[in-house]
Amino acid sequence: MEPSRAASGRDRISSLSDELLVTILAGLHSTAAAARTSVLSRRWRRVWTQIPDLIFLDDSSSPEAVDSALAAHSAPAIDTFAVALTDMSRPVSAARAASWLRSAAALAPREVHVMLPCKEPPPNPEDDVEEDLQVPVLDRTLWLNAKFVYCYRIRLPPAAAGAFAALRFLSVTLARVGGGDLGRVISTQCPLLVALELSMLDVDGDVSIRSDTLERLALRVVGVQNRLDVAAPSLEFLQVHGGDYAEARIAAPMLTEVEWDDGYDPARHRFIGTGRRLDRLAVTQWSRMPPLLERFDAADELSLHLCIEAWPVAYNNLFLENTKKLPQCKALTVGLKVMAHSIESCLLRLLRQCGSVTKLEIELIHPDVPKASLCKYLGCRCVQEEMLRTDNVALDSLQEVEFHFFTGSSKDTDLVKLLFMCKKTLKRMVINVDDDVAISEEVHDKIQSFAHPSTTLEIGGPSSHKRDVCQCKEHDWYHIRQVCQFVH
């Protein structure tokens, strides 16, 4: 019998074509892992240098590995250049990072993702030395994600250097940049830009953005007390978080979705050409809400995330004033952080204002605060009988209620009971639990006793999917999502 090829010891993988070997190595999604195959044989030494991606996402990746790979790589072009270095003890200088970006630009990647560690800041901020990072033009890149640090000052390319002609998606996090340069590049050198996400930027000067193609704009702590001027006729989504802009002018006639977590003064902050109806509006009570809520008559989805501090004026004045007029909505999401007050009273207040709602989502927050009974001694209206009535809550259209971060506590269970008191014949009630919480049989039976026989009950699902979108401090509201979302 003729021996099998495997038994004969023949290297069948090395007999494959270079093109197929390159495809196999590209599937590793790691340049370092691909480079290690060079020890297999003489033929393998250069195969890895032809893969169409340069990806350094391993914990063991180092600046030296990136240097070596860029020097050895022989493919004329690549699809992806991705570097995520997390070792803070090995900071990357601005000159080195600029060199990598220039090398990447020469390879015309469709995607560029960089996340680079900085040097440790000195104990005395006055001793900090700012480094300039010269950013080259990436004329064929469609998606650019850059997460730097405050010791880098980004120097953007001048108009004469050319355009980011293919760029559709741009995200920048943690850097210093000139507002004039930022606005110039976005407005004049990104002719196809669709989505722009800027987070935690120290911006010198005002920012002016002019774009006919921009559809999504997210500004998260981009400068403080700067002026913001946006003219984007195609803009559909706007997020403003924590900039406290001295003035903001948003000219966006196609705008359908607004997330606003910032001060809003109609004398200084204006929407130009935007209609009075949105698909979605999300606001918070950290700043005065009424002027923004009064700017829009209706939103298909209304998201309110409210923090009500412990003293009576926070409920009697701020909360009641902020919720005196709410846009009409079909779906209402409420995140309540109630300090000492009656959470039942707060929820009932909102439900009275939103009688046309068909779906209600409640994101529960559980701060360690004094009991609501203290309000009885402080003259707070939250415990007055009038504020706790359910017979004046009309929810004829309500069909579905969904709780998130439910713990099974008596207070959480009382809220479930309250909802059934307001609308006995719900079609569906979903109760998603907090992390590592298991609903006891006793709590399960109690909830069932509240429900109408026709109501579909779903109890015990996870709430983890809400953590990225829940806008409350306890659920990572102030945790800026990592902009570099590397795709394997």
**Kindly, what is the distance between the CA atoms of the first and last residues, rounded to a whole number of angstroms?**
45 Å
Strand order of the largest sheet: 1-2-3-5-7-8-10-12-14-16-17-18-19-20-21-22
Low-confidence parts lasting 5 or more residues at pLDDT below 50? 1-7, 468-488
Tell me what portion of residues adopts beta-strand conformation: 25-35%
Strand tally is 22
> Any idea what the shape is?
globular
Measured on Cα atoms, how large is the radius of gyration?
28 Å
Note the total helix count.
10
Q: What share of residues is helical?
A: 10-25%
Structural class, from secondary structure content?
alpha/beta
Mean pLDDT: 85
Main pleated sheet: 16 strands, parallel
What does this structure look like?
InterPro entries: F-box-like_dom_sf, FBL15-like. This protein has helices at residues 18-26, 31-36, 63-72, 94-106, 179-188, 290-295, 312-322, 343-353, 410-422, 441-450; strands at residues 53-56, 80-84, 111-115, 131-134, 143-147, 152-155, 169-178, 195-204, 207-210, 216-222, 227-231, 237-241, 247-251, 257-261, 269-272, 277-284, 298-308, 331-338, 359-364, 400-406, 428-433, 456-462. The protein is α/β, with parallel strands linked by helices and 488 residues long. Strand 21 (428-433), helix 10 (441-450) and strand 22 form a beta-alpha-beta unit. The longest helix has 13 residues, at 94-106. The chain starts with 17 loop residues before the first helix and ends in a 26-residue tail after the last strand. The model is unreliable at 1-7 and 468-488 (pLDDT under 50).
